[in-house]
Design goal:
By secondary structure, the protein is an alpha+beta fold. The protein folds into 2 domains: 213 residues, Arc Repressor Mutant, subunit A, CATH 1.10.10.10; 101 residues, Nonspecific Lipid-transfer Protein, Chain A, CATH 3.30.1050. 49% of the residues lie in helices and 18% in strands. It has 15 helices and 10 strands. It has a 5-stranded mixed β-sheet with strand order 8-7-6-9-10. Helix 6 packs antiparallel against helix 12, helix 7 crosses helix 10 and helix 8 crosses helix 13.
Length: 320
């Protein structure tokens, strides 16, 4: 777990799982192992015979995250067979969600296990971990404004990540404001809440000690991305507070958004829990993840106008 632990401080929830799946060879190996236990030589053959040393390196990484395991094969010339663990099968479920998202690329369907998928996933993960996604989901910003909002990352690094996101159409330029070009998320980036939340849930279930916990910025970014995609009844008007209780030390910290709806249209979504609201929904991070991934409402608490609260819950479920 050493390599993963080293990344823990610089990554964000969900990034580790998506980085694993962004590697074409990792994806190929997992896909082959999904069919059943297999030897190293068969794995290499099905992957186009990459060098043995390279294959072993990638397999060690997958063993490190406990997605695969090795066992000696009785009465076989090949002494070792590789197979998926329960964690590995769960990771392949994340891959399925990721593949659905890649298939909706504005540039045309992208297949997992390809260089194009690696570029798109890397741009998403870099934007997510650097907080670019969080900032742009909240408001349209130019590079100079992002640099002020995210001072821990150098201007050239932000420029590089923003360019990568633009090239794969995760963000789109808006009308220039003076000499600067502001950017906003595309609907495709907003739909990335599905693989991001699936990846975060996998990490919490199968790799909790080696990956970052779900934090306030993750929660706010997920809501800010997904809420504008909701389709609500045209008769619905009101304000609902979506809150997540995050344990920090011995005290809970609340994060989330305030969503205003007017005749079924989202008029605002702000990371502010202090405003007046007719309804609210609250729960732990994983309860929200399970709702957005699987439609489960277990352990989510609703209050106030239940009609508004349930309509927003249903709308969020359909964005994933």
């Amino acid at each position: 777990m050493t390599a993963l632990a080293a990344k823990k401080g610089s990554a964000r929830s969900g990034a580790t799982a998506l980085e694993l799946l962004s590697s074409p060879l990792n994806a190929q190996l997992l896909r082959r192992l999904e069919k059943g236990p297999v030897s190293l030589i068969e794995l290499r053959r099905d992957a186009g015979f990459p060098p043995q040393s390279t294959t072993r390196t990638y397999l060690r990484t997958l063993e490190e995250v406990e997605a695969i395991e090795r066992a000696r094969a009785p009465q076989s010339k090949e002494p070792t067979l590789y197979s998926l663990t329960a964690s590995g099968h769960a990771l392949m479920a994340v891959a399925t969600t990721l593949q659905r998202w890649l298939a909706a690329s504005p540039q045309g369907p992208i297949e997992l296990e390809t260089p194009a998928a690696k570029s798109a996933i890397k741009a998403l993960v870099d934007g997510w971990s650097s907080s670019i996604v969080r900032e742009l989901a909240a408001q349209t910003l130019a590079l100079t404004e992002l640099a002020k909002s995210i001072p821990k990352i150098s201007y050239p690094a932000l420029d590089h990540r923003l360019t990568a996101m633009r090239l794969v159409e995760l963000i789109e330029p808006q009308k220039k404001n003076g000499r600067s070009t502001p950017y906003r998320p595309t609907d495709w980036l907003r739909c990335a809440v599905a693989p991001l939340s699936a990846a975060s849930e996998w990490e919490r279930e199968h790799l909790p000690e080696a990956t970052p916990p779900i934090g306030s910025p993750d929660v706010e970014a997920a809501f800010l991305l997904a809420v504008p995609l909701m389709q609500l009844p045209s008769t619905l008007t009101g304000t609902v507070r979506l809150a997540v209780e995050i344990q920090r030390g011995g005290s809970p910290v609340f994060a989330g958004v305030l969503v205003c709806v007017e005749k079924g249209a989202i008029t605002s979504c702000t990371p502010d829990l202090d405003g007046e609201a007719e309804a609210w929904v609250s729960g732990a991070p994983r309860s929200w993840l399970r709702h957005m991934n699987l439609g489960e409402e277990n352990h989510l608490e609703l209050g106030g106008d239940s009609k508004i609260a349930r309509a927003v819950l249903t709308g969020l479920e359909r964005t994933a």
